[in-house]
Amino acid sequence: MFRWSLSQAACVLLMFACLALAYEDDIEVNYGDNYYNEITEAEPPATTPSPPPPCSSPELTKWDKLFSMLENSQMRENMLLQYSDDIIKVEMGSLRAEMLRFVAQYGGSCGVALESTGRRMTTQLENSIRETLERFQLREDKASAVANGKCIERSNNMEALLQQLLSAVQTQASRLAKLESSCLSSPSAGAGMALIPKKGFKLPDAPGAGHQEQEVTSQEVTQALEGALTALQQTKEELERVLRSSSNRNLPAGHEMALLFPMRSQRIYTSVKPEVPLHLSAFTACLWAKPASVSNKTVLFSYGTQKNPYEIQLLLGQTSARFTVGGEAHLVEARGVVNTRGASEWIHLCGAWSSDQGLASLWAGGKKVASTPGVAEGHTLPSGGSLQLGQEKNSQSPGGRMPGFEEGFNPKLAFAGKMTGVNMWDRVLSEEEISQLALREGQGCEQRGNVVAWGVTEMVPHGGAQFVN
């Protein structure tokens, strides 16, 4: 047992000895002096730089950040624009397809509606012109009957112009009908139309043209329709102008004559001889006037005496009407009630006054436009004065005598135009009576005053003034 253990120990020692001999050549022993902790003054200790961390990035400046934000916003804008363009292209394509289908399906019915509308407009214009001609004929017949059988000459120029307008309307209607027939398909072609969006559409030609086809572009159709509409509008404007001219040519309220004042002059006026002396404590004076031109003060109706040349005055301004009793200090004025600029029209004016409470009223067009109390209260109009139309007597001679008309008149105050229906009453008319007098199409000529009566009281024109029909 002991021997076996001794032999094992010898074997282990032998094994270690062999291993030591095997590694002896590989190990080199350096017996030099190595001073790893020595510090010298000449050379500083070498330091090795530490490598940067593998995932770190350099810090960005504010300009780098700003440029980065701009690039991102521009990229987003380009993306949105591209997206919008795609959407618009799709929507426009679908809308175009829908419009083409709509025109192909309803083109025929729209053309029929256009044709019926054009014919209806033409019929209405023709009826209006025929009614106008008939109304003119009735007025002329009535005027002939009132004039005791004396035929009044018909206005050939007016009738010829209306006939010309009627012919123009019929010509436009014919042109419109031809245009509509060329735009509509033939009955055998069905309700739809073959549309060529870019080049236009081809339609059969008029009957008798064989198989020849006519190409009509949408632009040509639009231009033709616009031309027809313009011609119809011009015809309508011409007809309205003729009707206004005819309305102004006729005298208002059934009157058959008027006083013409051809120009403003100190020698042109009309003197009136009243039926009774003007010793009045109340009155109403009315007239129709159609001024050719108006100054700041234009005299229509004036009554004055040697003591006071301004007892009664009815005046016109540029846009106002004025009425005085007993002197210029007693003024009743209404602004903006008349328009004497541009096309002249007939104007109806009335001035009413009563000595009781001195109430003075001014009427224009049948409506009370101004009223003032205390105007010449308790005053009585003296008799023995001069009543004239279109002028006022505004001066006296040193000896106290009334001078001649041509010496006492001022041309700047003179009236130029036409005047009719001059009447005067010795009382204040009611609102209903004045409204009836102011009806242009009424019969106000039948209502005459008891102091001055139009057509009955003597009126003497001077200096070129004259009566006209």
What does this structure look like?
It is a single chain. Mean pLDDT is 75; it is low at 146-154, 185-216 and 396-406. This protein has two domains: 101-250; 258-468, Jelly Rolls (Sandwich). With 469 residues, the chain is an alpha+beta fold. The protein contains six helices and 16 strands. 23% of the residues are buried. The strands form three sheets. Strands 12-11-10-5-14-3-16 form a seven-stranded antiparallel β-sheet. Strands 9-8-7-6-13-4-15 form a seven-stranded antiparallel β-sheet, with no helix packed on it. The protein has a two-stranded antiparallel ribbon with strand order 1-2. It has helices at residues 2-22, 62-146, 156-183, 218-249, 405-408, 431-437; strands at residues 201-204, 213-216, 258-261, 269-273, 282-293, 298-304, 312-316, 320-325, 331-335, 347-354, 359-364, 367-372, 386-389, 416-425, 458-462, 466-468. It is elongated and about 190 Å long. The longest helix has 85 residues, at 62-146.
Describe the structure concisely for a colleague.
The chain is an alpha+beta fold. The chain is built from six helices and 16 strands. Helices cover 38% and strands 20% of the residues.
The N- to C-terminal Cα distance equals: 180 Å
| Shape type | elongated
**Strand elements, count:** 16
Number of individual domains: 2
User: CATH topology of the largest domain, which one?
Assistant: Jelly Rolls
Question: Could you estimate the helical fraction of the residues in percent?
Answer: 25-40%
Order of helices and strands: HHHEEHEEEEEEEEEEEHEHEE
State Rg: 55 Å
Total number of helical segments?
A: 6
Sheet having the most strands: 7 strands, antiparallel
State the name of the first-level CATH class of the largest domain.
Mainly Beta
Q: Label the structural class.
A: alpha+beta
The residue ranges in which pLDDT falls below 50 over 5 or more consecutive positions are 146-154, 185-216, 396-406
Widest beta sheet: strand line-up: 12-11-10-5-14-3-16
Examine the secondary-structure arrangement and name the CATH architecture of the largest domain: Sandwich
- Average pLDDT confidence is 75
**What percent of residues are in strands?**
15-25%
